Backbone:
């Protein structure tokens, strides 16, 4: 099987890898680039645990081929904090205990960061619809929604 | 599986036409990759169309719109003028999957996957969208309603690829609407879908197209349902005739998601509601 050579940008850094044509971006991130933040919950686009952004657009990395990353700019949960300082969403998720097992958390952080960049003042309904593709089997969602609403309010005050 | 990412449709056609074994095109991959990962279907040759110039275009052309083959649902919803002119088509596409799926899924993929329950397809039928197709024997333009021929099957020949979709000129006093029934509010497959596209002359419907999804082996364009409301002002009699014609056109499957009786009934209910929404949209825009 011939391997494909891919050059891309991940969390602002240039990255290169070889992949099988059938390998997904999620496989590549986890198995080749040791970025294990994105999780595989389903592999079929239903759970959102694998959420990343590609050229700023929120997608499921389990439904993107590694080969498609050529020339693109990818952000994963590892790129959300700035060095040692956590992103405001990460701070609030801790404060609100908006996670239990944590499997869904990387995907939800990437997804909600994308939401707040597009819409800094979402309603609760908008947050819930935006996260319809991010499943959480532990928290019952409420703490997640409250953490996101509160982060949005803080960020609006700060700006 | 081989992966190709040609820079032109000419090259894409060349690769597809000379491919040994099975071929798929890769737009957003929300069907192709699901099928690949689930070992339902792995093509021998996969041709990514997203690096071809113009595939991300949403442009006004010939009074209507040209939508490139790789435009995602999210990109359609973000185009305020498109959403204003074709709210039904945009809302139908927007119902597909989650935010993440919206970032990738395309109209062309939804059409060519050939699912009778595909949400954007009834809206495209009702809007009379056509497709530009290029293949080994040259180019042709066909109505989108001629493309699905059965579950998972299209009328495209080997080597043929859709380069863009054309939405007709909207014109005055016209609007569309799409509704689907699902047992929950998000992330589910339509049990019934219905799109209605209307034009009014005063209060009277002068043109109508009605399309139903998930009630037959392929999406239906139901002329009898359109005829039931043309010439009326969508009074109760017209709505009853519309619902009866929509239900009469159904030939659905019986499964755990909806019985034949239920789907047939709901088709009529959705047709009434979608027609009212489209009608009210025209009146509100006046
Ligand atoms: C979690 C999830 C939820 C979903 N929910 C819904 C839903 O609610 N409603 C719904 O209708 N669908 C739903 N879908 C399916 C929907 O996302 C797809 O049908 C999508 O619209 C296909 O578009 P794509 O660009 O991803 O196509 P791809 O997967 O890239 O391709 C699909 C098919 O189209 C063909 N194709 C692609 N481009 C071309 C071209 N230019 N010319 C010729 N053929 C081409 C391919 O060969 C393939 O057969 C869901 C999918 C997922 C993963
Ligand atoms: S692993 Fe990608 S959506 Fe579940
Ligand atoms: S915290 Fe366990 S799945 Fe969300």
Residues:
């Amino acid at each position: 099987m011939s391997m494909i050579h891919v050059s891309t940008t991940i969390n602002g850094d240039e990255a290169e890898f070889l992949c099988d044509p059938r390998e997904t971006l999620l496989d590549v991130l986890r198995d080749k680039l040791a970025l294990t933040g994105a999780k595989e919950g389903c592999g079929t686009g239903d759970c959102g645990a694998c959420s990343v952004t590609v050229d700023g657009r929120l997608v499921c990395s389990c439904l993107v081929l590694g080969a498609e990353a050529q020339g693109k700019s990818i952000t994963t949960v590892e790129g959300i904090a700035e060095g040692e300082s956590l992103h405001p969403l990460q701070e609030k998720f801790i404060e609100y205990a908006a996670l239990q097992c944590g499997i869904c958390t990387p995907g939800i952080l990437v997804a909600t960061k994308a939401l707040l960049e597009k819409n800094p003042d979402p309603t609760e309904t908008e947050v819930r619809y935006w996260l319809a593709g991010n499943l959480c089997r532990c928290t019952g969602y409420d703490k997640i929604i409250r953490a996101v609403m509160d982060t949005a309010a803080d960020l609006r005050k700060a700006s | 599986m081989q992966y190709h990412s040609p820079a032109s449709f000419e090259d894409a056609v060349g690769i597809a036409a000379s491919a040994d074994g099975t071929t798929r095109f890769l737009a957003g991959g929300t069907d192709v990759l699901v099928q690949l990962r689930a070992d339902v279907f792995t093509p021998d040759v996969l041709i990514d169309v997203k690096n071809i110039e113009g595939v991300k275009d949403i442009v006004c052309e010939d009074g209507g719109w040209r939508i490139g083959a790789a435009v995602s649902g999210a990109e359609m919803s973000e185009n305020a003028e498109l959403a204003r002119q074709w709210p039904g088509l945009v809302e139908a596409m927007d119902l597909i999957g989650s935010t993440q799926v919206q970032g990738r899924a395309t109209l062309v993929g939804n059409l060519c996957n050939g699912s009778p329950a595909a949400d954007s397809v009834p809206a495209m039928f009702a809007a009379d969208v056509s497709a530009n197709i290029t293949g080994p024997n040259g180019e042709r333009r066909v109505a989108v309603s001629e493309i699905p021929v059965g579950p998972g099957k299209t009328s495209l020949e080997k080597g043929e690829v859709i380069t863009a979709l054309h939405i007709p000129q909207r014109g005055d006093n016209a609007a569309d609407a799409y509704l689907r029934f699902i047992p929950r509010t998000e992330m589910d497959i339509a049990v019934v879908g219905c799109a209605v596209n209307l034009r009014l002359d005063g209060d009277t419907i002068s043109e109508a197209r009605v399309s139903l999804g998930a009630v037959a082996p392929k999406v239906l364009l139901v002329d009898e349902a359109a005829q039931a409301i043309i010439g009326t002002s969508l009074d109760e009699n017209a709505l009853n005739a519309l619902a009866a014609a929509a239900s009469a056109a159904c030939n659905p499957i019986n499964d755990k998601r909806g019985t034949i009786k239920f789907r047939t009934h709901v088709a009529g209910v959705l047709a009434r509601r979608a027609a009212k929404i489209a009608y009210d949209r025209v009146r509100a825009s006046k």
The interface with chain A takes residues 1-3, 5, 26, 28-30, 33-34, 36-38, 42, 46, 48, 50, 72, 74, 97-101, 103-104, 185-187 of chain B (CB under 8 Å).
